[in-house]
Design brief:
- This protein is of the alpha+beta class.
- About 15% of the residues lie in helices and about 45% in strands.
- The protein has an eight-stranded antiparallel β-sheet. Strands 14-11-12-13-25-24-23-18 form an eight-stranded antiparallel β-sheet. The protein has a five-stranded antiparallel β-sheet with strand order 5-1-7-8-9.
Length: about 375
C-alpha cells in the first residue's frame, strides 16, 4: 500500500476517529486504526467493539491496500512532522514508512484481517434529520445521564422516533431532561432505543452546525452517516422507565427568571455548599429570590435576586450542580421555574419543547 496525503487532511481524519481507541485493551488490534487505501482515497476506522467511527480522507493512492497502525503513535507523528504532505508506504509485513520533509518514521502495524468488521445496516429502519437539531437535543439532555452502572438502562439517552416527533430523554433517577422536535418519520421507521453515553459523546463532538445526518437503526445497532463520517454503536438493551409519570401535571407557581443571572448566583452560592450534602436553599418572597448555602464550620453564602414573584413565601432546596447543568446548556435568555412546595419536584422550562424535572433536597 502506498499513498500521498496532505498533513492537514490526515490529521483531521485521525482526530475524528481517535477518541474511541482504547489504551487499556486486552486486544492489541483495538489500539490500532484501520487504514484502507483505494481509488476513492483512504478510509480510517477505529472501534472499541461498542462504538466504531470511520471517515474518508482525500489522498493520492499509488498502490491500493490495507493495514492497521497504532493510533496513539500515528497521531502525534502526523501532528509534529514539518512538511505539508506525507508519503506512506506499507510493506508486506505491515511496517509503515512515513516520510515528510526531512523526517522519516517507521512504525509496525498489524494485519487488517484481525480488525473487527464494521457494522452493516442491512434491513435497517432509515431516517434523516438536521445535524444541528440532533446535536442540540443531545446537548440539552446528555448531562442528566446516570453514571451508575447497576442501572445500565439509564447509562444512555433515550430516543423515540414516533408520531412525527423525535423525543430525547435522559435521567439518573434524581433529575430528568426532555426535549422534543418535529421530525418526519417515514412509515415503518417508528422506533425507540437507548443510545449509550460513549456514542452520545462522539456525536456531540463530531456533528456540525449544518448539513443532514442519515440514521439507520437495526435491532441492536444504530449507524449515523454525515459529512464523510460514519459512527456506529451498539444499543443498550432493556426497557427505559416510564418517564412521563415523573413529570408533574400541575404546579402552583411559575416564576420567570433570567437564566444567566440565576446561573451566576447559583455558582457563587455553591462555593460554600456542603461537599457532602451539596444543597442550596431558594427562598422566594415578594419580588425577591434569596439563594443561600450554609455549611457549619465553613461559613455561609447568600445571593439576592429581584424576581417577578407574588405568591406565598416558598423555600425549596436543590443540588446546585443539578440546577446549573441545564442553565449552562440552554441558550434561552429567560427560563421558568415551576414549583408546588418544598417536597415536590421543581420543573424548569423555556418557551420551547424542553423541560427539566429536579427532585428537591431535604430542608435542614
Amino acid at each position: 500500500m502506498k499513498f500521498k496525503v496532505s498533513k492537514e487532511k490526515l490529521l483531521d481524519g485521525l482526530q475524528r476517529v481517535q477518541n474511541v481507541v482504547s489504551t487499556r485493551t486486552t486486544l492489541p488490534i483495538l489500539s490500532n486504526v484501520l487504514v484502507q487505501a483505494s481509488n476513492d482515497g483512504i478510509r480510517l476506522t477505529t472501534t472499541d467493539l461498542d462504538v466504531a467511527v470511520r471517515c474518508t480522507v482525500e489522498a493520492e493512492v499509488n498502490k491500493a491496500g490495507a493495514t492497521t497502525l497504532p493510533a496513539r503513535k500515528l497521531l502525534p507523528i502526523v501532528k509534529e512532522v514539518p512538511g505539508a504532505e506525507l508519503e506512506v508506504d506499507v510493506d508486506d509485513r505491515n511496517a509503515a514508512s512515513i516520510r515528510s520533509g526531512s523526517s522519516f518514521y517507521k512504525i509496525m502495524g498489524l494485519p487488517e484481517d484481525e480488525f473487527p468488521r464494521f457494522p452493516q445496516a442491512d434491513g435497517a429502519k432509515k431516517l434523516k434529520m438536521e445535524q444541528a437539531a440532533l446535536r442540540n437535543d443531545l446537548k440539552l439532555t446528555a448531562y442528566a445521564v446516570s453514571n451508575d452502572e447497576t442501572r445500565y438502562v439509564l447509562n444512555g439517552v433515550f430516543l423515540s422516533f414516533k408520531g412525527a416527533k423525535l423525543t430525547v430523554v435522559a435521567t439518573d433517577g434524581r433529575r430528568l431532561a426532555l426535549v422534543e422536535n418535529d421530525l418526519e418519520v417515514p412509515k415503518g421507521s417508528e422506533t425507540e432505543l437507548i443510545l449509550p453515553t460513549k456514542a452520545v459523546n462522539e456525536l456531540q463532538r463530531l456533528l456540525a452546525d449544518k448539513g443532514e445526518i442519515a440514521i439507520a437503526i437495526t435491532d441492536n445497532q444504530i449507524i449515523f452517516t454525515f459529512d464523510g463520517t460514519t459512527v456506529a454503536s451498539k444499543l443498550i438493551e432493556g426497557a427505559f422507565p416510564n418517564f412521563r409519570q415523573v413529570i408533574p401535571t400541575e404546579t402552583k407557581e411559575r416564576i420567570p427568571l433570567e437564566r444567566e443571572q440565576l446561573l451566576g448566583a447559583l455558582h457563587r452560592a455553591s462555593l460554600l455548599a456542603n461537599e457532602k450534602s451539596q444543597s442550596v436553599k431558594l427562598c422566594f418572597t415578594k419580588n425577591q429570590l434569596t439563594i443561600t448555602a450554609l455549611t457549619p464550620e465553613v461559613g455561609e453564602a447568600k445571593e439576592t435576586l429581584a424576581v417577578n414573584y407574588r405568591g406565598k413565601d416558598l423555600t425549596v432546596a436543590f443540588n446546585p450542580q443539578y440546577l446549573m447543568d441545564p442553565l449552562r446548556n440552554l441558550d434561552a435568555d429567560e427560563v421558568f421555574l415551576e414549583l408546588t412546595d418544598e417536597l415536590s419536584p421543581g420543573v424548569l422550562k423555556i418557551n420551547a419543547p424542553f423541560l427539566y424535572v429536579l427532585m428537591p433536597m431535604r430542608l435542614n
